[in-house]
Amino acid sequence: MKQLLILSGKGGTGKTTIAAAFIKLSAAKAYADCDVDAPNLHLIMGQNSEPGKIDFYGLPKAEINRELCIKCDRCRQNCRFDAILVNEEYTIDAFACEGCGVCEALCPVGAVALKPAAAGELMLYSDEGRIFSTARLKMGSGTSGMLVTEVKKQMRSAAENAELAIIDGSPGIGCPVIASLSGADMVLIVAEPSVSGISDMERIVKTAAAFQTEAAVCVNKYDTNIANTERIKEYCRTNNLPFVGRIPFDPEAVKAINDGLTVIDIDCPAGIAVREVFNKTIKLLFDTSTI
Amino acid sequence: MKIAVLSGKGGTGKTLVSVNLASAAEESVYLDCDVEEPNGHLFFKPENLREEEISVKIPAVHEKQCSGCRVCVDFCKFNALAYIKNRLVVFDEVCHSCGGCILLCPEKAMNEKEKIIGKIQKGVSGQVTVYTGMMNTGEASGVPIVKKLLNENKADEEMITLIDCPPGSACIVMESIRDADYCILIAEPTLFGVHNLNMVYELVKLFHKPYGVVLNKCQEGENPAERFCEEKGIRILGKIPFDNELGALNSNAKIAVRESEKYRTVFSSLLETVKKEVRHEAAVNP
C-alpha cells in the first residue's frame, strides 16, 4: 500500500478539499482522516452506510480513593502535571492528568489507581469495497498522536490489498502530525501564498524531512498573492522540492464544499487545476518509491 | 483581562482577529500560543527582542550503575524506555517528563537533564508587548511552552491580553484557554467552519468559559455559521466582511488596524464590545 499524506502546517489552506478530490480522482480503496481534533472529511465523502464504531482508550487517568487517602501529599509533590487538586480532599484534575502513574507508584497506602479513560471514538466506513477510517478525539483530550496511529492501523488492516491510501492530515507540526508521518510514502504539502502560510510551510517541510518522508508542494488560492506564490516556487527550487502545481481561488469551489461536493464534482477552474496537481503527485508517488 | 481567540478549524482568522484587537487597544499584550505555527510575530515584527529557551526534563542514564532490572521500562506508560542489547535506551521524543523512572530506579542510575524544545520570544511593537512561543520542529508537544507563556503573564491582570490559540480542540488548546476570562470563537461561513465551531463551542462550555462568536469572511447570502449561532443562542460579537483589501493586507502580514482607518474603526468597536462582555461576565459571575 502506498500512502499519500496531505499536510499543510497552517490550517485552512485546503487539505481536506484536496484530499477529497484526490480520493474521488484516484478511486482509492482506502482513505483516512487523521485530523482527529477537527475531522471534516466525512462531511463531503458521502458515506452510504453507518460506520462501525469502537471506543478509543488513550492513557489511563489516576483516581484517588478518599477512604484510603491519608493526605500525605506525596502525590502532589511529585506530580509534574499539577493534576493533584487539594481542597478538603485530594482529587485528580482529569484534564491535567497524563496517566504517567507516578502518584500510583508513590502512594504509601495504595489509595491511587489508574483507570482506563475513553479518549475518543474510532469509526470505520466500508462502502462498496472502499474503506474510510476516521475518528474523533474527545474534547480536551491529550492523546491525539495515539489516536492517529489507531486510525491508520484500522485503515491498513481493513484494506490490506489496497494499492493506494489517501490520508488527510492535521494542521501544525506536533504529535498528531508526527504520528501521521509514520509509514507515509509521500507528503503533499498544501501551501497558501501568505507570509504566514510560507512560514508554516517551511516548518512542515523541516518536520517531514526530520522523519525522512518525501515531500512535494502545491499552492492553493495562488492568485490571492502572486508574489508570494512565486516565493514558494523559488523556495521549492532552492530546496529541491517538487512543485506540483497551483490552484486558483474559486468561489465555485467553496460553494461545492458547502453543498457536500468535492471540487471535481463540478466544472470549475479549481477542479481543473486540482486534476493537474493530482496527476503530477501520483506520478511522483509511484516513481520515487521505485528508486 | 485575558481574552483567548480560538476556532477549531485552522485558517479562519484567529491571528487576524487577535493581532488587530491587540493593535486597536491603547496598550496590550499579545501571546502567541500557536507554538507549532506561530505567525503573530510576522505581523508585529517586534523589536528589542529577548529570547528564552524552553526545556523539559528527560532522564539521563548512568550506564555503570544500571543493573538492567527494567523497573523503569515496566513503569513508563509512554514506552519511552527500552532495554536493548544490555543497554537502557531513552526515546526523548516520546518522554512526557513525568520523572517516574528516576524516582523508582532502585540503583539511582538515572538523573535528569534538560532538553530544549523551543523558545519564547518577547518584544515590542508600538503599544503591544508581543510574546511568541516557538516549538522546535520535530518535537511532539508544545504544552510546556504554552504553560510558561501563560505563567509569565500572570502579573498583568489588568492589561488587555489577547491569547492567539492553536487550531483544534485538544490538550494544547485547553491549556491555552485555561486562565482566559473570555473566549472569542472565530467562525467562517463554510460547512467545515460550522462543524469545527461546534467543537470549540463544546470545549468552552465544558470549561465554563464565557464566550461569543466573531463571524469572519462574511459574504452576501446565507451564512451557515450565523444560522448555527442563532439556533444555539450564541452571542455574535461582530462580523468581518470577506474583503479583498483585508485579504491582501493579511496575506502580506500587514496589520489592518495600522494600515486602514476603516479597519481601525471595525476592530476598535469589536474590542469595545468584547470589553463590555468581559466586564458584564465579571459582574455576573465573579
- The helix tally of chain B amounts to 11
Shape designation of chain B? elongated
Question: CATH topology of the largest domain in chain B, which one?
Answer: Rossmann fold
How many individual domains of chain A? 2
**Rg of chain A, Cα atoms, Å:** 22 Å
Helix coverage percent of chain A: 25-40%
Beta-strand residue percentage of chain B:
25-35%
The level 1 CATH classification of the largest domain in chain B is Alpha Beta
> Which architecture of the largest domain in chain B per CATH?
3-Layer(aba) Sandwich
Low-confidence stretches of chain B: none
User: Would you list the SSEs of chain B in sequence order as H and E?
Assistant: EHEHEHEEHEEHEHEHEHEHHH
Rg from alpha-carbon coordinates of chain B? 22 Å
Written overview of the protein:
The complex is a heterodimer of chains A (291) and B (286). With 291 residues, chain A is an alpha/beta fold. Chain A has two domains: 224 residues, Rossmann fold (3-Layer(aba) Sandwich); 58 residues, 2-Layer Sandwich (Alpha-Beta Plaits). Chain A is built from nine helices and 13 strands. In chain A, helix 7 links the parallel strand 12 and strand 13. The two termini of chain A are 16 Å apart. With 286 residues, chain B is α/β, with parallel strands linked by helices. Chain B has two domains: 220 residues, Rossmann fold, CATH 3.40.50; 46 residues, Alpha-Beta Plaits (2-Layer Sandwich). Chain B contains eleven helices and eleven strands. A nine-stranded mixed β-sheet of chain B has the order 3-6-7-2-8-1-9-10-11, sandwiched between helices. Chain B has a two-stranded antiparallel ribbon with strand order 4-5. In chain B, strand 6 and strand 7 form a beta hairpin. In chain B, helix 1 crosses helix 11 and helix 5 packs parallel to helix 6. The interface between A and B is large, with 61 and 56 residues.
